[in-house]
Amino acid sequence: MLPFLPMDVIKHWIDNEAVDGGERNGDVFNPATGEKTAKVVYATREDVDRAVASAKKALESWGKTSLAKRTRILFAFRELVERNKDTIARMLTLEHGKVLSDAAGEVQRGLEVIEFACGIAELSKGEFSENVSTEVDSYSIRQPVGVCAGITPFNFPVMVPMWMYPIAIACGNTFILKPSEKDPSVTNYCARLFQEAGLPDGVLNVVHGDKVAVDRLLEHPDVAAISFVGSTPIAKYIYETGTRNGKRVQALGGAKNHMVVLPDADMDLAADAAVSAGYGSAGERCMAISVLVTVGDAAGKLLPKMRERMASLKVGPGIDPTSEMGPLVTKQHLDKVTSYVEKGVSEGAKLVTDGRTLKVSGHEKGFFLGPTLFDDVRPEMVIYQEEIFGPVLSVMRVPTYTDAVKLIHEHVYANGVALFTNDGGAARKFQSDIQVGMVGINVPIPVPMAYYSFGGWKSSIFGDLHIYGRDGVRFYTRNKVIIARWPDPRFRGVNLGFPQNT
Predict the structure, then answer these.
(1) 179, 247, 464, 494: most buried, per Cβ within 10 A?
(2) Pairing of strands 248-252, 392-398
(3) Which residue among the candidates 118, 171, 190, 286 is catalytic per the annotation?
């Protein structure tokens, strides 16, 4: 019997029902108040094995289920998510802390991937060539990989899992999701909606927990593919461990996204973008702008406008519809981000705006840090080199466009980048020159639509294929080539020669 029954208990979801776990568990908080709201059970190796066994059994029939039936279930799931999107947004706000408008945007982006997966009949088509040799045809088909798993982060508890499991399931795979233990409730809710849509038992399972669950998924012989989004050190570990165990792996890591502002840019537009992309979701986005690279005299024109906008931001509980920025997800993460602010001061960066002074009336125990702005940041500083993942924006000043590009190329991460300019030639040159996976031109957060694919370069990704879009379909399917000849009396007899195309 679990010792925390008086508090809400978030269980695993296996075979389309809630399932208890072992004795280990973790606390779930409301970040705006600092109060514990639930306990989440942590999976043992045996719990993971149970989920994998369920998925493996379901694969026998789901992998052979017609495209028509799979598509109907996906359309039904899409309708249920659409109908319940306000409930989903509210659930993730209460456990993650992001404001309701941001949560609603996250749900919408997840919906767009489900809609993309609804087109699986077109997306999974193979190729056909007639008469590659005399009366011999060759064609290719794409088949499911098998049992797949996803390990997802706290910052997008709806959207990032939906980058994975709708496409994997649409392709005929079964799926095990290990979401973040920090905000797990919404994952179970969406799994219930998929069940309501008609998804058979075992096709989507959810196990909660920590490294015990992750390691078992990485080593389990019946798991064929692993998708991951999180920090670079863990992404590298996931990739190396998973591939060593013979699995197909896509592991998306950290970021240090630069926004370059040229002197000719629309400074009002750039100021709006920098503040929005730097402090939205309290900076807890892998695509957040964390470094502002000002070229020439751009800083002198831009920073006063940014400070005006920052001064008017309303920081408060995410559930308050008037709040523009909410708290960080946990006390531990707040302490970590605050330590980076202290490090920046000690390294000599100029602290223009100190978010540590923020007090939210009535929510003194919440995990709040106000918008923080550093100027005169140098490349050797820790606050530039490392991903902070909080509302801390660094300003760097360089004399030329060439210096800005060089600075970006020397960084270990290459996830996203933006350029603000009114010069079309400079923009075209930048999008060609820059060695970064996702590029925005006068767009600060260049997250691709569902029909493209999301992924950075360098230490921001491990693996060959990006996530969702057509790369997602390729990742969750294997290509098989068939060469066929139907028997003809004219072609009889033994021939030991190497086959020739005639």
Answers:
(1) 179
(2) unpaired
(3) 286
- For residue 436, which of 471, 408, 464 has the smallest C-alpha distance? 408
For the packed helices 159-170 and 67-83, what is the interaxial angle rounded to 10 degrees?
Answer: 160
**Is pTM, for the whole model, over 0.90?**
yes
Least Cα distance to 368 among 376, 380, 359 occurs for 359
**Arithmetic mean of pLDDT, 446-465:** 96
Nearest Cα residue to 250 out of 188, 167, 189, 172: 167
Beta-strand relationship, 136-144 and 477-484? antiparallel
Q: Which residues contact 353 (CB under 8 A, 6 or more apart)?
A: 307, 310, 370, 371, 372, 373
Pairing of strands 35-41, 8-10: parallel
Q: What is the pLDDT of residue 493?
A: 76
Whole-angstrom distance, CA of residue 387 vs CA of residue 257: 9
Helical packing angle, 232-244 and 211-219, nearest 10°: 30
Q: Do 174 and 203 contact (CB within 8 A), yes or no? A: yes
Residue 464 CB coordination number (10 Å): 12
Residue 401 has, within 13 A of its CA and on its CB side, a CA count of: 17
- Residues 337-349: pLDDT tens digits? 999 999 999 999 9
Question: Measured over all CA atoms, what is the biggest interatomic distance in the chain, rounded to whole angstroms?
Answer: 90
* Mode of pairing for the β-strands spanning 392-398 and 372-375: parallel
CA atoms within 13 A on the CB side of 123: 27
Spell out the domains of the chain, with CATH numbers in brackets: 8-253+460-482 (3.40.605.10), 257-441 (3.40.309.10)
286 counts as catalytic: yes
Q: pLDDT-derived band of residue 17, with 50, 70 and 90 as boundaries?
A: very high
Which string of b and e fits 49-61 if b means at least 16 CB within 10 Å? ebbbbbbbebbee
Reference 81, options 101, 111, 104, 121; nearest CA is 111
Q: Which of 65, 67, 20 is nearest to 40 (CA)?
A: 20
Secondary structure (DSSP) of 410-478: TSSEESEEEEE-S-HHHHHHHHHH---SEEEES-S--PPPTTS-B--EETTEESSS-BSHHHHHHHTEE
Tokens of 81: 């998510």
Residue with token string 């992309």 = 277
